[in-house]
Design goal:
Layout lengths: L3 H7 L7 E3 L2 E3 L3 E3 L21 E3 L16 E4 L2 E4 L8 H13 L5 E5 L4 H10 L7 E5 L16 H14 L4 E4 L6 H10 L4 E4 L3 E4 L1 E2 L4 E2 L5 E5 L4 H15 L3 E4 L5 H10 L3 E4 L2 H4 L3 H16 L14
Parallel strand pairs: 3-4, 3-16, 4-7, 7-8, 8-9, 9-10, 10-15, 15-16
Antiparallel strand pairs: 1-2, 5-6, 6-14, 11-14, 12-13
Length: about 325
């Protein structure tokens, strides 16, 4: 027998659909770039077709091996990674991975990155004819030497990049912000250049130490912190940027429960991305989605629009 919240959804009483700028999702739960790769193995635990959307692992023009191990370090309530944007490159993605992702029938946002403006543009050009929904532009990865966090610290460079991508690509451009540095100025530059939405935010630069070796745990030294530990920090960013710009925002950082989703919605996000939670429990995004109707019923709302940006301050 179906419980009442699920009956409400099926009867059309509750609307879980949401819009992020020009993008439409049947529900607000997207998979974040990175932790689920391109779906390899995850679909045996999780019905990807039931999610709001999929954000691919970061994609570059040429294949990239990433950083040498060790590349992961657990911390209290978090995870530091220095994967280094390992990926198979544009051509292999188009031929081998994208057709499988298309079969799930949900919006696909391709996360792209490069070491120069030209690299970004060549990846975007190579995706022009594909059946995707948007480009998510990674200007904020803290665990690579080139094209990572430094690129996204200069509002002028970001403005030029977004302008060129908007001119070149037929798809909406979503800019994934760093949570550190001149976040407000970079967000303003991206939006003024034509970005359709912001993903707030990437991981936080962090360090794990091996006290016996007196060395960093990760081979690269530093990496990016994700997981529940960063949620309060990222919630603050979402709230501030929504209050400043009223921009379409996808919240990303530390989401492991339906309550976390609602917190992001209240702060101004219209959708969220679930990442590190899939490493802890590959079924987590489905469980979060399943729990969301009950949470909305408890709050006395019938659709997500009643929550977005309504935090009382």
């Amino acid at each position: 027998m179906l419980d009442q919240p699920l009956k409400s959804v099926l009867n059309g009483y509750m609307d879980l659909s949401t819009h992020v700028g020009p993008l439409s999702f049947k529900n607000p739960i997207l998979l974040a770039s990175g932790t689920w790769g391109f779906g390899e193995g995850l679909d045996s635990y999780l019905d990807l077709s039931g999610l709001g959307g999929l954000v691919t692992k970061g994609l570059s023009l040429e294949p990239r091996a990433g950083n040498p191990p060790p590349r992961l370090a657990e911390t209290p309530c978090g995870l530091i990674n220095a994967i280094g944007l390992e990926n198979p490159g544009l051509e292999t993605f188009r031929q081998e991975f994208l057709p499988r992702l298309e079969a799930y029938g949900v919006p696909i946002l391709v996360n792209i990155f490069g070491e120069s403006l030209e690299d970004y543009l060549r990846v975007a050009e190579g995706l022009r004819e594909e059946k995707i929904s948007a480009l998510e532009v990674n200007i904020s990865c803290p665990n690579v030497e080139k094209g990572g966090l430094q690129f996204g610290q200069d509002p002028g460079s970001v403005k030029r990049l977004v302008e060129e991508l908007v001119r070149l690509s037929p798809f909406p451009v979503v800019v994934k912000l760093s949570p550190v540095g001149p976040v407000r100025e970079v967000a303003e530059a991206a939006l003024s250049a034509g970005a359709s939405a912001l993903t707030v935010a990437n991981t936080y630069p962090a360090l794990a130490v091996d006290v016996f070796q007196r060395r960093p745990v990760l081979s690269r030294g530093t990496g990016g912190l994700s997981g529940p530990a960063i949620k309060p920090l990222t919630l603050r960013l979402v709230h501030e940027l929504y209050r400043l710009f009223q921009a379409p925002i996808i919240g990303c950082g530390g989401i492991v429960s339906a309550s976390d989703v609602v917190e992001y919605l209240l702060c101004g996000a219209a959708a969220v991305q679930v990442g590190t939670a899939t490493l802890l429990d590959p079924e987590a995004p489905g469980k979060i989605l399943s729990d969301l109707p009950s949470f909305l019923v408890a709050l006395g709302v019938q659709n997500l629009k009643e929550l977005i940006g309504t935090l009382r301050t």
